[in-house]
Amino acid sequence: MLEELTEKFERVLKKVTGQGRLTEENISETLREIRRVLLDADVNYKVAKQFIEDVKVKALGKEVLTSITPGQLITKIIYDELTRLLGGNGAEIKLNPSGITTIMLIGLQGCGKTTFSAKLARLLKSKKRDVLLVAADVYRPAAVNQLKILGKQIDVPVFSIDDSKDPVKIAEDALEYARQNKLNTVIIDTAGRLHIDEEMMREAAAIKAKVNPTETLFVVDSMTGQDAVNSAKAFHEKVDFDGIVITKLDGDSRGGCVLSIRAVVDRPVKFVSAGEKLDSIEVFYPDRLASRILGK
Amino acid sequence: SGKAKVDEETLEELEEVLITSDIGSQIAEEIIEKARALFKKESDRSVDNFKKIIKEELEAVLSQAKTNGEIDLSQKPYVIVIIGVNGSGKTTSVGKLAYNFKRSGLKVKIGSADTFRAAANDQLEIWANKAGVDIISTNTKEPSAVAFDTIKAAQKDGTDIVIIDTAGRLHTQKNLMDELNKIHRVINNLLPYAPNEILMVLDGTAGQNAVRQVEEFEKYTKPTGIIITKLDGTAKGGVIFRIISEKKIPVKYIGVGEGIEDLQDFSPKEFIEAMFGN
Ligand SMILES: Nc1nc2c(ncn2[C@@H]2O[C@H](COP(=O)(O)OP(=O)(O)OP(=O)(O)O)[C@@H](O)[C@H]2O)c(=O)[nH]1
Ligand SMILES: Nc1nc2c(ncn2[C@@H]2O[C@H](COP(=O)(O)OP(=O)(O)OP(=O)(O)O)[C@@H](O)[C@H]2O)c(=O)[nH]1
Ligand SMILES: [K+]
Ligand SMILES: [Mg+2]
Ligand SMILES: [Mg+2]
After folding, report:
1. Which residue among A139, A149, A257 sits closest to B207, beta carbon to beta carbon?
2. CB contacts, 8 Å: A225 with chain B
3. What angle, 0 to 180 degrees and rounded to 10, lies between the N-to-C axes of helices A3-13 and A24-40?
4. Is the distance from CB of B93 to CB of B252 less than 8 angstroms?
5. Which of A3, A204, B163, B213 is the most exposed place for a label (fewest CB within 10 A)?
6. Which residues have C-beta within 8 Å of that of residue A3, sequence separation ≥ 6?
7. pLDDT at site B1
């Protein structure tokens, strides 16, 4: 497991073998190495610092068994800790057993909301749900058309009011439309917005208040850097969300932002996405992301 | 606390400023070490002076890559290709750039070579209309053919500047990366001096992976400049320090909003001040 990192630790931990115990002294260089790994994976500065503290506490005094090298031991400690912090397996999407399930997607500009709404629609449709996509982004040029094209590709209807500039009304009318047409699942795509844009954040909160979604999902680009803590915190405080979606994992970003977000917002990752195609939607495995953050 | 002493706490605070700006752990360490060495010889022992030295070091990094200055219109059209990963802000930046050039009295033509993303063409058409410039969006499914058609049309009507928008792609998509290379070759076959600029658009909220993005794109079509977008948020875009220092590619513009006027020339001084929250 994590050979490269383990090797790195072996090198700085050479001294430990024979001593048989991890001590403050002999792991300090290792901790610095872990810190570097985390920062290079885009884990937030403060989050990395806390993580190192916790690992140190866990590691100190640990016996180095004969069957395991100190490098392997420390790798296992941080891997386990990372996996734990990233969250448990299989946080399923909540579905409303009776009545309409409404899912609202929020996030920064360009993170992949619109594409993901179609991916989710496709998935839920395959589970025999009757899905309606809702185009509630009235700002981005051609956002409505983008969703319509995606909807057509997966044969899911798209609700829009083409001349409306009122996303709250669009969402409200969409629910009414779903009711009338016996559609049990509504997915609302919203405009990308900055977490510091008060007016736009109020708008997202207003849509949410109006439709009272079964699930509100915060979509995050896996390539995001240090600022992820700020945007996640603000979206959480101003709109609130039930789960997280990580996109663009088909690149080779290490995805440390997920650890940062999980550290400031206690919400599970519900899906990951690793491709532009509409079948690119997967459940989240914390252990896989832990390996990825540590460099595979 | 302008006169306060530089202690461990100060150093840590400054390190935090640098690292939370996405500058990367290595370059942050290097800059602080360098500043410490320089500071030893200073008679002004204040934190302010230490900060000043750090800022000078940061500026020195940014000065390692120079932009190629004025646009040379001795041969027309001047061709700009816009590249980058998904959702970084390419299409929006094309609209903003077109608007800026148009306003400075130039004749602009946009080529819509994103034949991949849903409604990419509609999106770009809206931007072209806003900017008041022509757009070539042939129905062919071949992006390099769109580039070809745009340049042909530009030659015919004396267009000054051609801007080609391309689809977002991650470098793990080999076929799409090859396509970039093909676009480059088609342009170069028509105009041996072109493309004049290959601007890579980076999302300002991106972390260390942005360096890899540039590295990988370079293998297919070498960026001559960077546009870093979304700096109207709280992200600082510090990863450009690594890109400039490791890749020697200059930053040309920054994106500071979703409006057509929200593209600015890159100013190293202002960029650094913004990192420190000024
Ligand atoms: N490679 C890759 N691209 C993705 C993924 N998810 C989305 N994209 C691409 O990212 C770009 C932006 O996606 P959108 O779905 O338009 O993002 P958005 O959040 O709706 O954007 P705004 O509405 O402008 O805020 C598009 O080019 C998508 O094809 C993914 O998992 N992998
Ligand atoms: N706040 C802010 N948003 C921006 C900026 N530049 C672009 N955006 C937004 O980011 C999102 C993606 O922008 P696009 O121009 O479609 O990005 P793209 O790179 O062309 O995307 P693909 O073609 O799908 O790869 C849109 O919602 C834009 O409005 C900027 O400087 N600031
Ligand atoms: K992005
Ligand atoms: Mg969208
Ligand atoms: Mg685009």
Report:
1. A257
2. 22, 205-208, 210, 235, 239
3. 150
4. no
5. A3
6. none
7. 45
Cα–Cα distance, B105 to B40 (Å, whole number): 52
Separation CA A99–CA B220 (nearest Å): 52
If you measure CA to CA, which chain B residue comes closest to A39?
B25
Q: Contact at 8 Å (CB) between B163 and B110?
A: yes
Say how many residues make up chain B: 278
Cis peptide before B223 (omega within 30 of 0): no
User: What's the mean pLDDT when you consider all of chain B?
Assistant: 95
* Strand A269-272 to B78-83 pairing: unpaired
Query: Dihedrals φ, ψ of A186, to 5°?
Result: -120, 125
Kindly report the nearest CA distance between residue A146 and chain B, in angstroms: 5
State the Rg of chain B over Cα: 21
Which tokens in the block code for residue B75? 């041969």
**What is residue B226's three-state secondary structure?**
strand
Neighbours of B198 (CB within 10 A): 24
Encoded amino acid at B244, one letter: I
Q: What rounded mean pLDDT belongs to chain A?
A: 92
Q: Is the peptide bond before B77 cis (omega within 30 degrees of 0)?
A: yes
Q: What pLDDT, in 10s, does the model give residues B60-110?
A: 999 999 877 789 999 999 999 999 999 999 999 999 999 999 999 999 999
pLDDT tens per residue across span B160-198: 999 999 999 999 999 999 999 999 999 999 999 999 999
Q: Give pLDDT, residue A182.
A: 97
- Measured CA angle at A144 (ends B165, A282), to 5 deg: 85
Residue ranges lining ligand 1, Cβ < 6 Å: A 107, 109-115, 137, 140, 143, 191-192, 247-248, 250, 273-276, 280; B 86-87, 117, 168, 170
Contact between A227 and A199 (Cβ < 8 Å): no
Report the predicted TM-score, pTM, of the whole model to 2 decimal places: 0.96
Element holding A179 (H helix, E strand) = helix A167-180
Mean pLDDT of B115-131: 95
Residues of chain A with pLDDT > 70, as a percent, come to: 93
Which of helix, strand or coil describes residue B107?
coil
Task: Note the Cα A104 to chain centre separation in Å.
Answer: 15
Q: Which two tokens stand for residue A239?
A: 């709109």
User: In A41-142, where does DSSP find H-type helix?
Assistant: 45-59, 70-86, 113-126
Angle at B31 between CA B28 and CA B35, to 5 degrees: 140
Taking the CA atoms of chain A, what radius of gyration do you get in angstroms? 22
Q: From chain B, pick out residues whose CB is under 8 angstroms from the CB of A111.
A: 87
Are β-strands A243-247 and A158-159 bridged in parallel, bridged antiparallel, or unpaired? Answer: unpaired
Number of neighbours of residue A271 by Cβ within 10 angstroms:
22
**Which residues does chain B have within 8 Å of residue A122's beta carbon, measured at their own beta carbons?**
none
Comparing A66-70, A194-198, B52-56, B206-210, the range with the smallest average pLDDT is A66-70
Residues 6+ apart with CB under 8 A from A1: A75, A76, A79, A291
Q: What is the pLDDT of residue A6?
A: 78
Strand partners, B133: none
Residue that the structure tokens 């999302």 belong to: B203
